[in-house]
Amino acid sequence: MPALVLLGAQWGDEGKGKATDLLGGSVDYVVRYQGGNNAGHTVVVGDQKYALHLLPSGILSPECVPVIGNGVVVDPAVLLSELDGLAQRGVDTSKLLISGNAHLITPYHTTMDKVTERFLGKRKIGTTGRGIGPTYADKINRVGIRVQDLFDESILRQKVEAALDQKNQVLAKLYNRRAILADQVVEELLGYADKLRDYVCDTTLLLNEALDQDKVVLFEGGQGTLLDVDHGTYPFVTSSNPTAGGACTGSGVGPTRINRVIGILKAYTTRVGAGPFPTELFDEDGEKLRTIGGERGVTTGRDRRCGWFDAVIARYATRVNGLTDFFLTKLDVLTGWEQIPVCVAYEVDGRRVDELPYSQTDFHHAKPVYEMLPGWSEDISRAKTFEELPKNAQAYVKALEEMSGAPISAIGVGPGRDETIQINSFL
Ligand code: GDP
Ligand code: IMO
Ligand code: MG
Question: Which amino acids does the record list as binding GTP (predicted)?
Answer without folding.
Answer: 12-18, 40-42, 304, 330-332, 412-414
